[in-house]
Design a protein that fits this description.
This protein is of the alpha+beta class. Helices cover about 35% and strands about 25% of the residues. The protein has three domains: about 60 residues, no CATH class; about 90 residues, Beta Barrel (Elongation Factor Tu (Ef-tu), domain 3); about 140 residues, no CATH class. It starts with a helix and ends with a strand.
Length: about 325
């Protein structure tokens, strides 16, 4: 049962070949430690332009430093132009956001109930003042116009005949062949026929106006913002009190070169805003673009529920980057 102690010691002895480590693995470990140390030194060293600070108005200043190289680098960075949109407006007294709107948004509605026969524009199309954009079915009014023209011709004929009769009776009355009463009746008939002729002319003009109303024209130079009906639908100038009734408008148009920013201004900031105050406008979609503007309207009444007052800022020289109903930032400038 007794084991030889020397044999147990020999079993615990480690083979010298197993104790020898791989030379390649040692080199990899050494290289990894070296790279880690170099990276730590690089990131630990402060950057030359780290001390730059930007003050209001986009001007840079640098805290005092004893490192001449860092000072030179800072000076060069301060001379670089600031990226558009990063500039701060030095004389801005208030910055708020609002929505771009058309100064005039016109919804074109018919003057009477009618059937849409033709629409010549689509959403986004440019239109000019006086351009025909919609035609309503005018068959009924054209028939009434033709009837009015016929009645006018009859009234003219009746007037001519009554005038001839009056002249004949007047001649006979002068020679005492006709009585004075017949002369008066003939004269009154002439007056009645003249009144009938005037009425017939008015009816003709009325139905001509109805025909003109069937041809709807654009009232401004602008763009079709919304198409509210289609050919074949019935339209009316007034609602019947329900959403399922006829449409009350045909098209909505606006001038893309006449834009404003509509702002709900907090009453606490009202003292910073005045009429004709200059502004700078930047659309949120294009913050690097800036437009001049002017306060053109301050609402005469505030909203009690929101505690705000509506302000409108007219945009000078708008371009295609400004889209109605998108948001924009407005800087109100001081003196």
């Amino acid at each position: 049962m007794n084991d030889d102690p020397k044999s147990k010691i020999s079993q615990l002895r480690i083979d010298p070949a197993a104790r020898r480590r791989s030379t390649g693995t040692m080199w990899l470990i050494f290289l990894g430690v070296t790279l880690t140390a170099v990276a730590a030194v690089i990131f630990w060293r402060p950057w030359a332009g780290e001390g730059i600070r930007f003050a209001r108005g986009g001007k840079a200043y640098t805290p005092a430093t004893s490192d001449p190289a860092a000072s030179a680098a800072t000076t060069n960075l301060a001379a670089l132009p600031v990226a558009p949109g990063a500039n701060l407006i030095s004389n801005s007294v208030l910055t708020v956001s609002g929505y771009i709107v058309n100064r005039e948004r016109i919804e074109i509605s018919p003057r009477f109930m009618g059937l849409v026969k033709w629409i010549g524009v689509n959403k986004g199309d440019a239109v000019t003042n006086g351009q025909v954009i919609v035609r309503l079915d005018d068959a009924e009014y054209r028939a009434q116009f033709d009837a009015a023209v016929a009645r006018l011709a009859t009234a003219k004929a009746n007037l001519v005949r009554s005038e001839v009769d009056y002249q004949r009776i007047l001649s006979l009355s002068t020679n005492n062949i006709e009585t004075r009463a017949n002369e008066d009746d003939a004269r009154l008939q002439v007056e009645a026929n003249r009144a009938a002729l005037a009425e017939a002319e008015a009816n003709r003009d009325l139905y001509r106006t109805y025909l003109d109303w069937c041809v709807i024209r654009s009232p401004i130079n602008g763009v079709v913002l919304e198409k509210l009906t289609r050919a074949g639908e019935v339209v009316t100038p007034q609602s019947f009190g329900g959403t399922g009734g006829p449409s009350t408008a045909l098209l909505s148009v606006g001038d893309p070169k006449d834009l404003q920013v509509e702002i709900d201004l907090n009453e606490a900031d009202l003292a910073k805003v005045r009429l004709h105050q200059p502004c700078k406008i930047s659309p949120e979609a294009y913050p690097d673009r800036s437009y001049d503007g002017t306060v053109v309207e301050i609402a005469p009444e505030a909203s009690r529920q929101k505690g705000t007052l509506q302000i409108k800022v007219q945009i000078k020289d708008p371009d295609s980057y400004l889209t109605p109903e998108l948001s924009a930032k407005v800087d109100f400038l001081g003196k």
